[in-house]
Amino acid sequence: MDAREMKIKAAEAALAHVEDGMRLGIGTGSTAEEFVRLLAEKVAGGFRVEGVPTSERTARLCVELGVPLKSLDELPALDLTVDGADEVDPALRLIKGGGGALLREKIVAAASERMIVIADESKLVDTLGAYALPIEVNPFGLVSTRMAIEKVAARLGLSGELSLRQSGDGEFTTDGGHYIIDASFGRIPDAEALSSELNSIPGVVEHGLFINMAALAIIAGPAGARTLQANR
Ligand code: 5RP
């Protein structure tokens, strides 16, 4: 089974949690897109959902495939969000933001009763941090914000390259008009502490650590999809 087939398996298993009439947060990335494709097939068959997309990219795919969309202001409380992740640890802490949509993803997940993460097994790790942590920052004061990130990281014993994400011939810009710093810490033993330290930096808009957000993770491997449940 190749990576795409595993993503489809995880997406199929997540679809089983979607009920007719649900208000649904719809994630971003290649795994979430497999979910959108399967959802669109059900919608074409008469299944009713209203989706809130977590990015312009996801919104475009939903429109193309006929998945009905609303804004988060129109549907401010959602039943379920289904989204991918860059890393998932056994406590269902996540690194997200590889696709640059972490701010809207976090807002939408926080507005949802439940979040289900879908991923292939390459995303499952013992400790977060091998994947560079995306940190969304305001372009104003970029150098100061970067220094502040280095400082809090050092306080927590973390170091590594902080690289400003590029796209084409300029900085990558998020749907919200911000930049992303990818922080290669290597290993993040205390994700909770790093999360709250990063949240205390004014220039940090949001970061890709999702803690206590996912209720279930559906992880697909060659033998099929298995579900991990958060212990809370
Ligand atoms: C986008 C994300 C994605 O969910 C994450 O990058 C995983 O993407 P993919 O399913 O393509 O591996 O957080 O901001």
Can you count the helices?
6
| Multimeric status of the protein | single chain
User: DSSP strand (E) fraction?
Assistant: 25-35%
Estimate percent helicity.
Answer: 25-40%
Furnish the topology, listing elements before pairings.
Elements: H1 3-15, E1 22-26, H2 30-44, E2 49-53, H3 56-65, E3 78-83, E4 87-88, E5 94-95, H4 102-110, E6 112-120, E7 133-137, H5 142-155, E8 162-164, E9 166-167, E10 170-171, E11 179-183, H6 191-199, E12 204-207, E13 209-210, E14 216-221, E15 224-229
Bound molecules: ribulose-5-phosphate.
Ribulose-5-phosphate is lined by residues 27-32, 83-86, 96-102, 105.
Structure overview:
By secondary structure, the protein is α/β, with parallel strands linked by helices. Helices cover 30% and strands 28% of the residues. The strands form four sheets. Strands 2-1-3-6-14-15 form a six-stranded mixed β-sheet, with helices on both faces. A four-stranded antiparallel β-sheet has the order 8-11-7-12. β4 (87-88) and β5 (94-95) form a beta hairpin. α1 (3-15) crosses α2 and α2 (30-44) runs parallel beside α3. It starts with a helix and ends with a strand.
In short:
The chain has 232 residues and is α/β, with parallel strands linked by helices. Helix content is 30%, strand content 28%. It has helices spanning 3-15, 30-44, 56-65, 102-110, 142-155, 191-199; strands spanning 22-26, 49-53, 78-83, 87-88, 94-95, 112-120, 133-137, 162-164, 166-167, 170-171, 179-183, 204-207, 209-210, 216-221, 224-229.
